[in-house]
Amino acid sequence: MSNNLPKVAWIGLGIMGSPMSENLVKAGYDVTGYTLEQDKVDRLVAAGGNGASSIADAVRDADVVITMVPASPQVEAIAYGPDGILENARRGALLVDMSSITPQTSVDLAKNAAEKGIRVLDAPVSGGEAGAIEAVLSIMVGGEQADFDAAKPLLEALGKTIVLCGPHGSGQTVKAANQLIVAVNIQACAEAVVFLEKSGVDLAAALDVLNGGLAGSTVLTRKKDNFLKRDFAPGFRIDLHHKDMGIVTDAARNVGAALPVGGVVAQLVASLRAQGDGGLDHSALLRSVERLSGSQA
User: Fold this and answer.
1) How far apart are CA 66 and CA 47, in angstroms?
2) Where are the alpha helices (DSSP H) in 27-54?
3) Which pLDDT tens digit goes with each residue over 86-132?
């Protein structure tokens, strides 16, 4: 592909990474992808991207390296070591980590990358699978203004609300706050659903009218059908939200911020996971309210 757009390496082609990388291909970028499952690399190739057989192979010629993996240990695994990004990307490359990880991991990554002449942004996202597919994600970024400006055109092919929130790690801090709000919101909706159903109200009608008022939210809009149909196929798995609640409760504790309701919801998420529901969508918080209310078989 001959154009002036930066060459992109994409590491991590999961529920979010696959549609996001494909949106970059659609926007005209030359994207080379690597992930652990070959069929997901094949999917990117079928969409017009290129496949790589290793991280080193993917990042060698890249101007921008984008990573989208589940958590801090995976970011460290792909970034460090002889086969990792820092040893194999060229000096001057820009590494944009879109995973949701601890703020400290992002701070450390930026520091270690700087020694190799590699610039870093932490750029976690909100909007879930639907937001990834539709390219309307909210992207919260931590890092230097100049690097943010360089990455912005590329990020605009992935999301709609793209904001530099402060220095390295700030994107992750805002993402942690996002996950706190989302979990508490889903929990409140779940409690309302069980209350409404036990009261014999038409649930679909009730959720429609609630969503038109102050109780309305993006969470309710996106998750209404999950609640109505008890369809918990994952857009965002409980396992990942459990990880994120760990991040936000730990980070809040470090800065001395109390999360009284967040702490309770973190325990409810942990409990759902312990009951074997970790692979379900986070809207499955409804299941724990049903169990507590004695209304689930």
Assistant:
1) 18
2) 38-46
3) 999 999 999 999 999 999 999 999 999 999 999 999 999 999 899 99
- Written as one string, the DSSP assignment of 136-167 is -EEEEEES-HHHHHHHHHHHTTTEEEEEEEES
Amino acid at 194: V
For tokens 């460290």, the residue is: 76
Instruction: Tell me how far the alpha carbon of residue 2 is from its chain's centroid.
Output: 31
Give 87's Cβ-side CA count (13 Å radius). 13
First to last CA, the chain: 56
Q: What are 158's two structure tokens?
A: 């992935």
Number of residues in the chain: 297
One-letter amino acid of 191:
E
Whether 116 sits among the annotated catalytic residues: the reply is: no
Give me the catalytic one of 40, 175, 223, 243.
175
H-type helices in the chain, by residue range?
17-26, 38-46, 55-59, 72-79, 85-88, 103-114, 128-134, 145-155, 170-198, 203-211, 218-229, 238-255, 260-272, 285-292
226 touches 283 (CB < 8 A): yes
State phi, psi for 95 to the nearest 5 degrees: -100, 120
What is the DSSP pairing of strand 31-34 with strand 8-11? parallel
How far apart, in whole angstroms, are the C-alpha atoms of residue 127 and residue 70? 16
Region at 256 (left for phi over 0; alpha for psi -120 to 50; beta for the rest):
left
Residue 284 one-letter amino acid: A
Please write the tens of the pLDDT for every residue from 51-78. 999 999 999 999 999 999 999 999 999 9
Query: 50: which strand partners?
Result: 32
